[in-house]
Amino acid sequence: MKIQPLKIDDLTASIPIVQGGMGIGVSGSSLAAAVANQGGIGVISGAQIGYKEPDFLTNTVEANIRALRKEIRRARELSPKGIIGVNFMVAMKNYKQLVKVAVEEKIDLIVSGAGLPLDLPSYVENSKTKLLPIVSSAKAANIIIKRWMRQGREPDAIVVEGPLAGGHLGFKPDQIDKEEFKLEHLVEDVVALLQKLNKNIPVIAGGGITTGADIAKFLKLGVSGVQIGSLFVPTEECDACMVFKEAYLNASEEDIQIIKSPVGLPGRAIRNPFVERIEKENLPVKKCFRCLETCDPSDTPYCISQALIDAVQTGEGLIFSGGKAFLSKQITTVKEVIDRLMGELQEYEY
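User: That's the sequence. What structure does it adopt?
Assistant: Structure tokens below.
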């Protein structure tokens, strides 16, 4: 069957794939541009994006702003005709400031979760930047839509993330394995909500999607596209170090587990010596980056920023992953991943 493009307002992606934002530093300009060049939507992670800047430890905010501009501009150079977005966590202390920088750089879209981005429209006024909130329930989607409508705006698309997604999850630990919280049920709820509200807002499903059959299943449920993250990690273009990528290749299904994050949300990561260590002891914070609104360095079990920076640079920190990351067994390319998915998708009616 002919593959339908993903349309988000006046943006059109020739394939219905949004690459998930993965931080810190896993999805930078290299990965985002590669996905955009294949017709998908590439997404740069804005979380502590300045970690490679020389003054990051002493001037974190300015380093992040500078690096954000660099990464957006580099992605544009690598993919001048592609669709490029940035993912920002609502929980970041400098959320508003970084959003405004991305808008100044004329980013195509902003994907935002790890909290409800209730005031996001007010930060992007008079711009063409599209806004995609991430939700894990129809209730959250309803709250965002109503709040945004009071600001004169609707979401340009809604990303629904299920419990098989990687990184921080918008669920309580006891909800993750329950039937009613499976992605397909969440998608059905959000699609039904939009029908009830008479809103023609595209829905994008994310979390555990690894095959063309998966994509077809969700397209049949009424989504316009899917969000995929973990499949793009073991690729040549992914911005993480090779040890990080190899952790995906070497992981078994049993190695992928739920961890307690200092952010206050459960997270999904690959079991390694770092995870084993934080299960037994707290790690004193040597340097506070003041990255999260909810973090108190005096009582946090470990620094989430440092753990993720160590992972992306050396593979020895906290390696976030999706629930099906163990399925990848070789380093490939973004083109090969997308060609496989689209080839499989063409075999299905939806």
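The first helix runs from residue 29 to 37.
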